[in-house]
Specification:
The protein is an alpha/beta fold and 226 residues long. The chain contains six helices and seven strands, in the order H-E-E-H-E-H-E-H-E-H-E-E-H. A seven-stranded mixed sheet has the order 1-7-6-2-5-3-4, sandwiched between helices. The protein is globular.
């Protein structure tokens, strides 16, 4: 695997590619963003989002006012050209379903600098034919929140399925920040508290998805009536 965990910095390519991704999100997709005002302008922050497809990090980068460092599956870094590309976009590898100490240390270092860390708590892509809404997350997001003391920004990617559309519609929804003090870290039972915090975060993401789904159904009903 090609990645230098000692080289922690904001890559310049990220700044140049961000507006390109913004344009592509409107050309290839019919993209929209809700709740951008909920993103804190500074301070350590975990951006936790559901995972529906390969372009997901691009949607976040295009719409989030903050520069985000992303945890990405280690398989993407196995070939040097791809590793160079993803590293240049502030992504770093994590071995899924493992206690990847290097990745966790890197993630905590990102937060120690008061930067934003992007993570998909589900740990994998969840396709609509498997489950239409987000599924339960892993404990990693709660673990990082507990160790770093960072607040968490719940984010939802909602894809509207409509065979009449030439371009898929994807809505990026930033919810209200979950303060770290509201995640229940009291130090009594760290394992249980970590899992409970992860559930709180995923429940917020699911609530954003449910609201988006209700809004879509209301619009669909109103369109049929008219």
């Amino acid at each position: 695997m090609y990645f230098d965990y000692s080289d922690l910095r904001n890559r310049k390519l990220y700044t140049f590619v961000k507006p390109v991704l913004k344009v592509l999100s409107h050309i290839v997709y019919s993209s929209d963003c809700v709740g951008r005002e909920n993103v804190p302008p500074q301070g350590k922050l975990i951006v936790a989002c559901n995972h529906i497809g390969t372009p997901d990090p691009g949607f976040i980068v295009a719409n989030c006012p903050r520069t985000v460092h992303y945890m990405a599956k280690s398989e993407l870094f196995e070939k040097k050209p791809f590793s160079v590309l993803f590293s240049a976009m502030n992504a770093f590898p994590v071995v899924r379903c493992s206690a990847d100490r290097k990745a966790l240390r890197y993630a905590l270092d990102v937060l120690d600098k008061d930067w934003a860390l992007g993570i998909f708590p589900e740990g994998r892509r969840v396709r609509s034919n498997e489950s239409p809404s987000p599924v339960d997350g892993l404990a990693g997001v709660g673990y990082l929140a507990r160790l770093s003391g960072a607040d968490v920004l719940p984010c939802c990617l909602y894809r509207e399925v409509d065979g009449r559309r030439l371009r898929p519609k994807v809505v990026v929804i930033f919810g209200e920040v979950i303060k770290n003090k509201d995640l229940g870290f009291e130090g009594k039972n760290r394992s249980a508290e970590t899992k409970a915090a992860s559930k709180i975060i995923m429940d917020k993401i699911k609530a954003l998805w449910d609201e988006a789904d209700r809004n879509r159904k209301v619009r669909s009903y109103e369109n049929r009536k008219s």
